[in-house]
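## Example pair
The file below holds two records. Each record gives the amino-acid sequence first, followed by its structure token line.
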Amino acid sequence: MSFCRSLLLLTVLPRTLSFTPQSLRRHATSIAMGKQHAVENARPVNIHWFRQTDLRLHDNPALRRSVDLSLGKSKNPVVGAAVSESPPHRGNILPVFVFDTSRYGSNTRSELGSLKCSARRAQFVLQAVSDLRSNLEKRGSGLIIGVGKPEDVIAELAKGVLTQSSNGAKLNIVCQEEVCSEELATEKAMRSKLARAMNKGSKFDFETVWGGTMYDPETLPFDGGVNGIPDTFTPFRNKVEKACAIGNPLPVPSDEELAMPKDAHTIVKESKCHASLDYMPTLADLQYSKEDIEEAELVDIRSALPAGYRGGETFALARVKDYIWDRDLLKGYFDTRNGMIGSDYSTKFAPWLALGNVSPRYIARECRRYEETRVANKSTYWVVFELLWRDYFKMFAKKHGASIFMIDGTIGKRDHANKRKWGNDPRHIKAWKDGMTGYPLVDANMRELKATGFQSNRGRQNVCSFLTIDLNMDWRYGADYFEETLIDYDVHSNWGNWASGSGMTGGRLNRFNIVKQSKDYDYGGDYVRLWCPELEGVPDKYVHEPWKMSDAMMEACGVKIGPGRDYPAPIVDPTVQPRIMSRGSNGGRGRGRGKQGGRGQGRGNGLRRENNNSNRSKSQRKDMKSLKEGSYTFRP
């Protein structure tokens, strides 16, 4: 059976849907069609809609809600609260995942021109969904997988449920709450389609449940909850760490709780919903071209992702165990996290967090367990600190809505020193994407992203600064391209970080000095040479500033720098300060201070590693200055 569908060229409009603030923990819509009493005593069918952000069984508040509804529990517990013993009878849940055709395919592009999702990331999602189905099947359940618009597939599935009841039926549809415009538009369409699908005597409830963060929004110490959070991270962090406790991870539901209706196969068959309990689409079914599929299947041995990585909860939990417990790497995270080569300089949890394959509360709990049994230090705290950034950006997106996708960001129309007239020179944007800017650190990072779907945190900050400040290109082109390419793409963190990095959330504008950053975090040029092999023979002194070499030196190194040569000349003059930084009134500052065009230094030429930190990567010249260590607690 094939569900491959022919798609027209899809142009996806920007995320512009606004929304009205509602209760954060639980949003519900209830609609009945005549003869309410006909369904009062009927046991409801519960459709659990897994979204692309909660593909797991452990610590899944929305799934817990589906289980509770299936077992006849009407009260929705606070997210993260302890789960009481369930009554000894079976659940009645239809788990569903839909590959949304408005997000996948080689012709499905955003208004700014990037793919909505690369084939490589789509393959990662396919693996995660397959793993979720396997884990459900091991527990006697299953996963209905559809291809199409989620609202169409689930509305048709609801019709299949209705055909099994002559007196009307009660349906509960539950999913994780999302906060951004495209996701909210899908929810709105879902409610409308479900309402039209109901027949006489039938009723449905559509509920969204908050999840995917360490902290429950209802416990935030700000007037207005999420709508009252600060627009900068540090005051948010300080108050939350002092006043809030992380919820305890929820257990995986029991086999009995996850049980499907006995007539599940009949319901799916009768629904005609372009979905199946057996079918799994391929990249070709999702309308990716042969070329894109071949590129997605290539494995670059230089990748910083763990060997043999796959999407899914199974690999995610194994990675957490391997990093924290088996290889005992957590205790050195703070010192290694600014590395750029290899799989162990950072946790690499992000790809699985992005798809909800692993819960941030689960990771935080493992960090606390490690602190209690092995060692507690700045590194063990810092992983939880990074998870708090994820919380912040989801809540920031909830607060500001569609403005995080707008050219002026959350600054909006008001005057601000960071506002400027953006450029959109396609030659500059293409050079940046292709890693051909003439700045080796930028180029190496962009080539790594294109080849593997991953880029270090240090690299992301530098390429963002370069595109939006040095080149002054519209920051949304960068965010849009990262949405296409990143394996660990997370809508809140990606767009929030780009808006912030470009100065469009207000506050101080931080420019990263590319050359100094290169020397501080790629001491000796190992990373640059890994991804820019044309610079292999360039001496350490010039590897981060190859434009300074004379023609005779280039000849000796076997590389020619300049237009149409082996490696490009700098796309912008390294000695000229970007206009936005020279205004003098924006409060901007540079990261990696020093004149961009200053004298190059190399090993044996004055470049020294500061102090002797054995945990630090040999490519890192100095320790990273950082905020003061904080704290975190869990609920009793």
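Second record, same layout:
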Amino acid sequence: GDKQGKEKGRGGSQNEGEAGRASEVRASQVSSTIDMEMITEEEKAIVNAIDVCSKVESTIPTMDESAEGHTMKAEAVKAESSSVMDLRNSHLRVIPREITSLPLLRILDVSQNYLKAIPPVIVKLDKLEELRADDNRLTKLPDEIGQLSLLTRLSVERNLISELPDTISQLVYIQEIRLSHNVLKEVPWQWAMLSRSLEELTLEANPDLVLPPMVIVERGTRDVLRYLEKVRGAHTRQALDLAKLQLRSVPEHVFDLVSLLSLNLDNNELHYLPTRMLSLPSLRNLSLRNNHLNILPLGLWRLPLKRLRLEGNPIKFPPQDVLAADISVLLRFVKAMETCATDNSLDLSMMGLTSLPLEVTEMTSLVALNLHHNHLHDLPPAIGQLKRLKYLNVDGNRIEDSVPEEVMERFDKNSPAPLLRYFRAIHAATASYPFTLDLSSFQLRTISTQINALDSLVVINLDNNEITSIPPSLFRHQKDTLREFSIRNNRVRVLPTSLSMCAKLEKIEVEGNPIESPPLVVALSKPALCLEYLRRIEAVSRHGRLVLNGLPFIGIPPEMVGNNQLSSISITEAQLYGDRSKLGRPRPLHAPQIAPSVEVVCDERESEGEGKGVRLPMSRKEVLSMVIGPDLETFKHVGELEVVLKRGEEEERVICLPAGDTLAAMRTRAKEEKIVFLSYQ
């Protein structure tokens, strides 16, 4: 019995020794599988970790040599010791395949190393719950990572990852994915399937990320997953709804959806449409309402669009007339604008245009322009820059309302030079300083509204035309800028009083006109005298009194004809000009056109020197005839018309009473007031 006991004891000891040696051999084998030449001081940590796990495994008692409780305790020790592996900052360049011999591993941390890839064999760690590989040099993740069915946390921040496997969408228990500080371009839309489990997805600091857009990333994980779900729908239903997402640009990933039929980008912050939008060959419906679009790409006509919504955008091109029309008109417009460069011919006919787009005036190579049957009432002056234009069709429009009739009379669609010359002159008036309007020798009879609308002009030249009147509105916008005004050789009789507002006027040229007001002698004198005369005429509208004291005078200004505001006229100290053969004859006033009571005060004195007047000693009747007109009998409604003639120091007054009074009454009043009675026929 003792012998048997000793043998048994020796056998047990031998078995234990053999088990220990077997464990050491296994550890040695694990170590020996690593190429010894590659092991450095920086990589011993991984070998030591594997050795520790192997030694722990070798110390676990077997089921048949201990009690059940002791065995369970040993298993717990084994599980705890082998479930976590921390290899941070271990200077690793690769993850050894031997790690896969740890089937119970739950947490693996290989952060802060030099890893360029995670090997596909990691799939053998089927109990793995957390994988951390931050601060490495990873460029991608293996597709097999999607087979780690128990994985709940994945962190690969601060790497060089540019693409992600869509197989991660199979991780039904994943709760956290950290991907910030990489070079990602897209997150697979299949990840939308993670919406039930994923609680945190970090994507910050990926400068090239387009799916999802960074504006979505900034809102958090829920919004990212919702966005991915929208993209997923685009792949399954060919419709993508990106409305109300505050997008500042169209996401780049959209342009890869070649089968997309419908795209909704309403209520975003879009300022432009990229040309890549034209790479959607199947797009039928496009909605861009309530954005900030200013222009549409010319290539839009290449899309097979059937419906386009653009309401709520400040679009300047194409023009609103085109946008309001049928989509076929819009597509025809952008096509015409894009293709005209090939043959220098532009057809914008029947597009409902109310104004010509300014972009057309910049096409200086145009040879032919067709605008027939639109709703144009004028053309922009810049069209005059199209010097090569040989054909211009404006039939079915109303531009003659703004262009002088005499210019339109010489216009022919096959010879548009006269019309272009006119517009070129108008355009030059606003192109560069000093702003000069030169419409000389255009045979103009009137001044168009287009000319009246010009402002800040420095020089106005209307010489050698057939103009009969100057509209007061011509000077409304030039009062602070106009320096020269010339209307030589026209048919103008009256200069408008609005000319007096041009305080900086230095030169007025009116030769060759039958000027009546101001008197020609005034109009031909210094501009200051002419402007002063016009100011006094204009003052009648404010206080009803015409004061021409000290100014040359040959008769009642024509502007006063029919002016019911006129109550008195003063021409004292004036130069009375009687030689009407040189100065012209004023129009006589007519009774129904003069106020009930008009007082006229004047004097008579000799002129001194040459050019100040001729035949100045004038009879009283000549003065009255000059003031009133030759037909004194017509003034049946005049209350009193008083003329004061000064001869030396004596003063004589002449009163003309209404013709309705008897001659005796006139004489009686003249005697009572001790005045000279002037009879007339």
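Notes on the second record: The longest strand covers residues 641-647. The chain has a mean pLDDT of 78.
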